[in-house]
Amino acid sequence: MTTGQPPRRHAHRRPPRRATRLVLALAAAAVVVAVAVVVVPLLRPPGPRPLFQLPVACGETWQLGTYPGHDDFDVDLFPIEGEAWGRPVLASAAGTVTVAGINGSLGGRTPENPDGPRGRGGGYWVKIDHGGRWETQYLHLLEPPLVREGQRVEQGEQIGKVGSTGNSGAPHLHYEQRRGWEKVETWFDGEPSGITHDDREYTVRRTSNNCGA
């Protein structure tokens, strides 16, 4: 027998307010911890400058240069003698590879077709973290890097070959040293390179002491 009353519906139980607040508090704490893990190391002052060496073979003399619009402290390296294509590119100091891949697009300049189309950006490139918030970058490599992300490399270890991938007019190595967030003048074997501003085109010559142990 029905009474004409609509059937009762079970009301959804709401979680206790205390439990909700606890979950929200734990989530907020997790976010704070995650942000701290990322941000705090970046706020620490950089450590002492590593004893960087030229990223080329021991005993070789290379021309270091820049030009207007190249950006302050950027260095282009060309060998004084011999062909640039395929020359070994070495780690300036020990560290951990953070990037090993393609920056921009490769283009089509090769030893067989040196006047091929330019690409964009740095082409094949490598970034190395040397600790203490010091970093080096190596651009326009000929082929895929010889190292991988996360790999530990020693000073003088080959990481690639000189090429002309990316936005490059001729085979050379574009090289940078960075301290924290900022690009700085490159130093080699304890001495400043002399490449500072890009107000005009100029070059210097330096001989590599990147001779390993």
- Low-confidence region ranges: 35-40
In DSSP terms, counting alpha (H) and pi (I) runs of 4 or more, how many helices? 1
Structural class: mainly beta
Helix-strand topology string:
HEEEEEEEEEEEEE
> What is the rounded distance between the termini?
97 Å
Percent of sequence in beta strands: 25-35%
Principal-axes shape call: globular
The number of strands is: 13
Query: What's the alpha carbon Rg, rounded to whole Å?
Result: 26 Å
Helix content: 10-25%
| Overall mean pLDDT | 89
The major β-sheet equals: 9 strands, antiparallel
Task: Report on this structure.
There is one protein chain. It contains 1 helix and 13 strands. Strand 1 and strand 2 (about 75-80) form a beta hairpin. It has about 210 residues and is mainly beta. Residues about 35-40 have low confidence and may be disordered. About 15% of the residues lie in helices and about 35% in strands. The protein has one helix at about 15-45; strands at about 60-65, 75-80, 90, 95-105, 120-130, 135-140, 150-155, 160, 175-180, 180-185, 185-190, 190, 200-205. The termini are far apart. Keywords: Membrane, Transmembrane, Transmembrane helix.
